[in-house]
Amino acid sequence: MDTASQTPLSLREVTKQYGSLTAVDAIDLEIEAGEFVVIVGPSGCGKSTTLRMIAGLEDITDGELYFGDELMNDIEPKDRNVAMVFQNYALYPHMSARRNMVFGINAGDDSYSDGEIDERVQDAAETLGITDLLDRMPSQLSGGERQRVALGRALIRDPDVLLLDEPLANLDAKLRTEMRTELDQLHQQFGATTVYVTHNQTEAMTLGDRVVVLQDGEIQQVDSPQTLYDFPQNRFVAEFIGSPTINLLPVSVGADGDDRYIERRDGQGGFRIELDAADETIPDERTEAVFGVRPEDLHLERTATYEHASALSMTVDTTEPLGNSMLVYGTIAGQAAKVQLDAHTSVSVGETLSLVCDPDRIHLFDAETEEVFYHSASAPEGRAAASPTEPVSTSHN
């Protein structure tokens, strides 16, 4: 089976409305030929609707969809040379795995001989490790095996575009991990332009060359997985990407001469953290903001090596051993927070921990708009002025 042809995708102001409900709102997205792009977001955000519009299963209300230079809005699904894999496998129960894989292969313009079809099935089966399962019925297969058959059915068509709609959602945790690895290997081998939809941010981070974060039908950010994690464009992205979730604490941003800082004061204590005064994104006048810091970027003061770092006091409420680490839940200046520590750290409920923040891992969000205005780390080249929806092509494969 040959490497798949590679076709770029372009969604230009693509909108989907159901009556007065806007499910997808003017999406602009450029997907490079052979790229693996993951669309991630909560239930109802419009990600599956977007996938179905690419497949031709949903009409586009407004905007344009291109495969390469060809406008696809009015092209029938059977003429788009796309293959789609669903969450529920969609196998015919009365057909063997082999017959499921080849069913409808000659429905489009391409026509394959029996010998060519058999060769494609054998190649795909060997790649997916299901050669010995081809004559079994779906009822005789496990969930992971059925999903491999569904993937094989898609791959033997050499699609220009491969669409995957939450294909791992029905699998147990161990199988999901195995299938993530296999999907990554399959993409490297066949190279089809791939759009993958999921609500699972772990899948998004591990599979995507780029990740599209969607909320309420609107793109929040398009970036490489690591850039999403390190430089979220707004509060929603910061909260949605990363596990355990980011700490978000209301603060005031202030100025003292040439110095810039954030602080929080209340009846249960507070803190003050100095910022990079040379950063022009920090306002000169006092303003309200939300301070974001990830649990793994807080450290015990007694073990940290940062110079001139300001301490934050956490009162411990509970601990959660995770084997390789320990998650500690508590309060900082009256706000719920968590810190990820070494698994062998001695921590007691009710204890007060003195913590310091990694000075290169501070994020500040506008209290009203929730857009980011400050990252203490230097953004990757080209990101500082980028909009939340501007694609930046970065492959992790």
TrEMBL record:
Coarsely, its chief localization is: membrane
| Keywords associated with the record | ATP-binding, Nucleotide-binding, Transport
The record lists the catalysed reaction(s) as: D-xylose(out) + ATP + H2O = D-xylose(in) + ADP + phosphate + H(+); L-arabinose(out) + ATP + H2O = L-arabinose(in) + ADP + phosphate + H(+)
Biological process (GO) annotations held by this record are: carbohydrate transport
Q: Outline the segment boundaries, as ranges, of region: Disordered.
A: 377-397
Q: Name one GO molecular function term.
A: ABC-type transporter activity
Location relative to the cell: Cell membrane
Superkingdom is Archaea
Database matches in SMART domains:
AAA (SM00382)
- Which Enzyme Commission number(s) are on file for it? 7.5.2.13
SUPFAM superfamilies registered for this protein in UniProt: MOP-like, P-loop containing nucleoside triphosphate hydrolases
Q: What is this protein called?
A: ABC-type D-xylose/L-arabinose transporter
Assembly mode: The complex is composed of two ATP-binding proteins (XacJ and XacK), two transmembrane proteins (XacH and XacI) and a solute-binding protein (XacG).
